């Protein structure tokens, strides 16, 4: 079955540590996205990528970094500069970034907590 | 920035009743989408309504869009316990598939 796989499901970060969240899709989608969700709130866009080797900052990119070396993969690194990283992180993809009448498909998320 | 605002924040109903959730937004849009999120899971796309459409149906779901009032509603008819979830509206403005989400409505359907 095609879909988006996020791993790990739960992740714990120590002070001063960088952690990387994995997102892999086999939907052959061009565009991929990372969102952050805090309790009782909607999703906020961290980074998005329209095509391989290209990505743009979203609304809350500070303290995060991404790479897009392969079409299928869009890992997110939460750096030590992100002072409040505890949240639920969701990865999504869509057929084309510019195709604005296409839905986004989501993974099942990674819950990041501070030790 | 938050474009959509859902109302109510929480809704509790009995199985078989209808559930209505509303969404208001601030700027002009290309389309408006509704998503569902079960607890601890990712979002699932339910329905997309374009800015030139006024109503759309999908199974037990009915979505309306009023661009003059910048609002949309999602109606779930004959609700089931399995409909218990959070429901989010999301809008797209401009030429990119960049969704802006509201804070969601938490729906609880009791058997």
Please describe what this structure looks like:
The complex is a heterodimer of chains A (115) and B (111). With 115 residues, chain A is mainly beta. Chain A has strands at 4-7, 10-13, 19-25, 31-37, 43-51, 54-57, 64-66, 76-78, 87-94, 105-106, 110-114. In chain A, strands 2, 4, 5, 6, 9, 10 and 11 form a seven-stranded mixed sheet that branches. In chain A, strands 1-3-8-7 form a four-stranded antiparallel sheet, with no helix packed on it. The radius of gyration of chain A is 13 Å and the shape is globular. The N and C termini of chain A lie far apart (35 Å). With 111 residues, chain B is mainly beta. Helices cover 0% and strands 56% of the residues of chain B. Chain B contains no helices and eleven strands. In chain B, strands 2, 4, 5, 9, 10 and 11 form a six-stranded mixed sheet that branches. In chain B, strands 1-3-8-7-6 form a five-stranded antiparallel sheet, with no helix packed on it. In chain B, strand 4 and strand 5 form a beta hairpin. Chain B is globular. The mean pLDDT of chain B is 91. The interface between A and B is medium-sized, with 31 and 29 residues.
What's a concise summary of this model?
The complex is a heterodimer of chains A (115) and B (111). With 115 residues, chain A is an all-beta fold.
**Spatial separation of the terminal alpha carbons of chain A:** 35 Å
Measured by DSSP, the beta-strand proportion of chain A falls in over 45%
Q: Biggest sheet of chain A: strands, sense, closure? A: 7 strands, mixed
Oligomer class: heterodimer
Helix residue percentage of chain B:
under 10%
Compute the number of strand runs of chain A.
Answer: 11
Average pLDDT metric of chain B: 91
Order of helices and strands of chain B: EEEEEEEEEEE
Order of helices and strands of chain A: EEEEEEEEEEE
Main β-sheet description of chain B? 6 strands, mixed
- Secondary-structure content class of chain B: mainly beta
Query: Helical element count of chain B?
Result: 0
Q: Tell me the greatest interface.
A: A-B, 31 and 29 residues
Q: Whole-number average pLDDT of chain A?
A: 92
Taken from the alpha-carbon principal axes, the silhouette of chain B is globular
What percent of the residues of chain A sit in helical stretches (DSSP H or I)? under 10%
Based on Cα principal axes, name the global outline of chain A: globular
Number of E-state strands of chain B: 11
Radius of gyration of chain A (Å): 13 Å
Briefly note the structural class of the backbone of chain A.
Answer: mainly beta
Separation, N- and C-terminal Cα atoms of chain B: 37 Å
